[in-house]
Every structure is written in structure tokens, then in C-alpha cells.
From TrEMBL:
This is Response regulator. The modification 4-aspartylphosphate is found at D52. Residues 3-117 form the Response regulatory domain. It comes from Duganella margarita. It comes from the Bacteria. Residues 138-364 form the Sigma-54 factor interaction domain. InterPro entries: AAA+_ATPase, AAA_lid_NorR, CheY-like_superfamily, Homeodomain-like_sf, HTH_Fis, P-loop_NTPase, Sig_transdc_resp-reg_receiver, Sigma_54_int. Keywords: ATP-binding, DNA-binding, Nucleotide-binding, Phosphoprotein, Transcription, Transcription regulation.
């Protein structure tokens, strides 16, 4: 019978957990602190440890660190009341086998224990620099995101390229930052380039730099993003939007590990890790001849695919309250139950970014301390709703004082044939949303792009595609 050590300072929780473990047929030892847990570990015989991350004094991470030396290979499952990206990532880097969020269901616990005891892998403990924190916290309590946090923890230290996939606003940049912050390169620079936002003719000089006089306007030498990221991580966002000739050049740099600035003769060595991201289906782009297969192979050595927000159980409520707490200054505001239900029922095509913007707008629009359904600006029928909320706080405030009235458009969503071909329906929806966003932004394309969560280049392409003036 396996002997399980529970390390948790919450006596009531520990007792209940011990009873459940007893019920499941395990022997149990209990400890209320990191020190007591390590002492118990020193007594020997422990097959697995269940460890709360938040402990008074030395915390759960300190326990994991010490356990890796005292009992290498001991499977540890981390328990927290509140799973954040960084604590899961840290725990996984320290060799934790799994991560469970309290309250822990009996079935979930039974499965996790069975898995951990079966695998009983040697711990992959490595020294962790306590200062390595992702800039912004990635929050989630959902199972698919917990799996993502674990993956980040496991691959952060490798130097292989990582391809981050996922719909717009799912947090791809945050993943790239977390990979960097938890890697051995954390002390080096993190340089992000949005490949879709830079005109194709400038992208090369932006990425590889140029020498003075390389072209008219090149008044001085420019390092370029690859060399700026030397010793750190280069994040190539929207790589699926990059032109084929630039793709060829990126591939060469990744192969040779050196860059030649535009107009320069001398190649310069670079030492960096590349993380690329796209909301596009790169495999389909490869099949369509718009993305180089050899670059795709090289980038997708490690792939992290973020689930859309609608597939993250419980996260809408968690994130909505988080954004409320983060952005309400002064008197606290709370969400009415109907507003929470509306948030939970919304499909969130713009994912976490759209939720964040919706909350910012609601905060600006609600005068009292209650955020109700009318402050959210979510339409009952999600597919015919207006463009997503503005992206910046300034724009949010502006939108709050100037409510947008949008004229009926020639290509309204009412024309969509719901039983017809999907392509046609998507085209109608897109062109309708483009027109509405342009109307709402008084024809200002930058503002319309922001409302739609597109780069200006993407917007221009779409306007041309639908022949919209
Ligand atoms: N799990 C999360 N917890 C808290 N904030 C999040 C989370 N995921 C995303 N965000 C926030 O949502 C916004 C969008 O995130 P991010 O820019 O990383 O998405 P993205 O997938 O890179 O978007 P795009 O495809 O448009 O480039 C940011 O403000 C980010 O801080």
C-alpha cells in the first residue's frame, strides 16, 4: 500500500484529504509545514507527496527543491487554491508531477495519484532562479491551461524553437514571455516583433538590421531585432503573415545562426532562441504554398497550442474578476449574477483580449459599484454583434462617452444563409464586421483595425478582399 505524505498548513483540508486517501486505500502521513514535511520525508518510506504551494515560512516550492535532493524521483503533486501560470511553471520545472487546484475532486485525485505512482519518474530537478517570473501573470484554473503551464515548465530550458498556436487573444505572447522568463536566457533580452505589422519592404532591415547608406534613408547602422535579441529570446508574432522571400531569409538565419545586415558583407553570429506564433493554420498555409514547409518543420520542433477561452472551464469568471480587481481603482465594483452569466455564455471569438476589453469598457460605463448586463455591451446573438471592444484604455474611455450608432450595412448578417456553405457565411460575416467597425471608427482605419483585433496590414488586406472603400 503506497504511503502518501500531505504537506499543507490547512488542518481541516488536510484531515479531509487524509480521509479521502484512506478511503482510496492509501496510507497517509501529514505535515503542516515545509520543515515538518521534510522531516517526515527524512524518516523514509514515502511514495508520493501532495504539497500545498502556499505554506507559512518556507513554501511548497522550497519543499520541492529540497525533496529533489533528499528523495530524487519522488513523485510530488502540487496543490493550490489558486493556480497561476508562474507557480505551475515553477513547480513543473522543479519536477512536480502534476498540479491540482483546490478543491480537489475525489476522481481527479484518484486519477492523478494512479498516474503519478505508475510513472514514478526520476525528478527533473534543476536550480531555479527565484527572480525568473513571467512579466504578466497567466491565470487559469482550467485543465487544458494547466496542461499548457506544465508544458511551458518542461520545455522552457531547451533551446529548440517553439511554435505557439492559438486563436487571436488567447495569450500567445504571454506564453512566449513565460518561456523566456523561465529559461536559462531569462537574464538576456526578450524581443518581440509583430511580423504582420511591419511592411514587407521594411521587415528585412527591421529583423536583420542595415548598414549606413544601404538604402536611401539608412542614415546610420541599425542592429536589427535578431541581434538585439542576442543572448535572449526573439518572439516572431504572426509569422504566418510573413512574405515567402522573408521566410527564406529567416530559415537561413535559423540554420546558420548568423545574420547579414541589409547592405552589409559580413555575417554576424547570433545566439538566441526563437519563439514564433500565429493564429493561422500553418499546415494549411504550407499546403496552400503560402508558407515554406522547411521553415515550418524547423519552427514546430516544440508546439504549444492554446485552447480558445470558450474551452477553458471556469476561466471566464476567474479572469473577469481578475480584470475587475486589476483595473478598478478606488471603490470596488462587483459583477451582477446576470452579467456573470452573460459573460459565461458568450463565445469570446477575441478570447482573453476581448474579455479584458469588455471588462475595461464595463468598468468605464458603470457608474455605481455594480456591473450589470447592459454595461457589458454583449449582444444576445453573438454572431451579429458589433466589432470587439476597443483595445486601449483611452479608446475604451472614448467609446464610453461616445456611444456608437452603426447604420445598417448592405452586407448585413441577416443575409447569412445558416444552412448554406460555411465559406460564404464567413465572408458575409467578415465583410459585415469590417463595415461596422469602419463606421464605428468614423472611417479611421487604425481605430477600426484595433476594434477588430487586426493589424493595419491585415485590415487593408481584408478591405481589398471584400472590395470595401
Ligand atoms: N491567461 C491569461 N491571464 C491573464 N491575462 C491574459 C491571459 N491570456 C491573455 N491575457 C491577456 O490578454 C491579452 C492578449 O494576450 P496576448 O497578446 O498574449 O494574446 P495573443 O494570442 O498573442 O494575441 P494575438 O494573436 O492577437 O497576437 C493581453 O492583455 C494579455 O495580458
Amino acid at each position: 500500500m503506497a504511503l502518501i505524505l500531505i504537506v499543507d498548513d490547512d488542518t481541516a483540508f488536510r484531515m479531509t484529504l487524509a480521509e479521502t486517501l484512506d478511503d482510496l486505500g492509501y496510507q497517509v502521513r501529514q505535515a503542516g509545514s515545509c520543515e515538518a514535511g521534510l522531516a517526515s520525508l527524512g524518516d523514509g518510506g514515502i511514495d508520493l507527496a501532495l504539497v500545498d504551494l502556499r505554506l507559512p515560512g518556507d513554501d511548497g516550492l522550497a519543499f520541492l527543491r529540497a525533496a529533489a535532493t533528499m528523495a530524487p524521483g519522488l513523485p510530488c503533486i502540487v496543490l493550490t487554491a489558486y493556480a497561476s501560470g508562474s507557480n505551475t511553471i515553477d513547480a513543473m520545472r522543479l519536477g512536480a508531477f502534476d498540479h491540482l487546484t483546490k478543491p480537489v475532486g475525489r476522481d481527479e485525485l484518484a486519477q492523478a495519484l494512479a498516474r503519478a505512482l505508475r510513472a514514478h519518474q526520476p525528478a527533473v530537478a534543476e536550480a531555479v532562479d527565484d527572480d525568473t517570473q513571467a512579466g504578466e501573470q497567466m491565470l487559469s484554473n482550467s485543465a487544458p491551461m494547466r496542461a499548457i503551464f506544465k508544458r511551458i515548465g518542461l520545455v522552457a530550458d531547451s533551446d529548440n524553437s517553439v511554435l505557439v498556436l492559438g486563436e487571436t487573444g488567447t495569450g500567445k505572447e504571454l506564453v512566449a514571455q513565460a518561456l523566456h522568463a523561465n529559461s536559462a536566457r531569462a537574464a538576456g533580452p526578450f524581443v518581440a516583433v509583430n511580423c504582420a505589422a511591419i511592411p514587407a519592404e521594411l521587415l528585412e532591415s527591421e529583423l536583420f538590421g542595415h548598414v549606413k547608406g544601404a538604402f536611401s534613408g539608412a542614415a546610420s547602422d541599425r542592429l536589427g531585432r535578431f541581434r538585439e535579441a542576442d543572448g535572449g529570446t526573439l518572439f516572431l508574432d504572426e509569422i504566418g503573415d510573413m512574405a515567402l522571400p522573408t521566410q527564406a531569409k529567416i530559415l537561413r538565419v535559423l540554420q546558420e545562426r548568423e545574420v547579414t545586415p541589409v547592405g552589409g558583407r559580413q555575417a554576424v553570429a547570433v545566439d538566441l532562441r526563437v519563439v514564433a506564433a500565429t493564429h493561422r493554420d500553418l499546415e494549411a498555409e504550407v499546403a496552400a504554398g503560402r508558407f515554406r514547409a522547411d521553415l515550418w518543420y524547423r519552427l514546430q520542433v516544440i508546439t504549444i497550442k492554446l485552447p480558445p477561452l470558450r474551452a477553458r472551464d471556469g476561466d471566464v469568471a476567474l479572469l473577469a474578476t481578475h480584470f475587475l480587481r486589476q483595473h478598478v481603482h478606488g471603490r470596488a465594483k462587483r459583477l451582477a449574477p446576470a452579467a456573470l452569466a452573460a459573460l459565461q455564455g458568450h463565445p469570446w471569438p477575441g478570447n482573453v483580449r476581448e474579455l479584458r476589453n469588455t471588462m475595461l469598457r464595463a468598468i468605464a460605463l458603470s457608474e455605481g459599484d455594480l456591473i450589470d448586463i447592459e454595461h457589458l455591451g454583449l449582444d444576445a446573438a453573438p454572431l451579429s454583434r458589433a466589432a470587439p471592444a476597443p483595445a486601449t484604455e483611452a479608446a475604451t474611455a472614448a467609446a464610453a462617452t461616445a456611444p456608437v450608432t452603426v447604420a445598417a450595412t448592405p452586407a448585413g448578417t441577416a443575409e447569412i444563409d445558416w444552412d448554406g456553405p460555411l465559406d460564404r457565411a464567413v465572408e458575409l460575416l467578415e465583410s459585415c464586421m469590417l463595415r461596422r467597425a469602419l463606421a464605428a471608427a468614423d472611417g479611421n482605419r487604425s481605430e477600426a483595425a484595433r476594434r477588430l483585433g487586426l493589424s493595419r496590414q491585415q485590415l487593408y488586406r481584408k478591405l481589398a478582399q471584400y472590395d470595401i472603400e
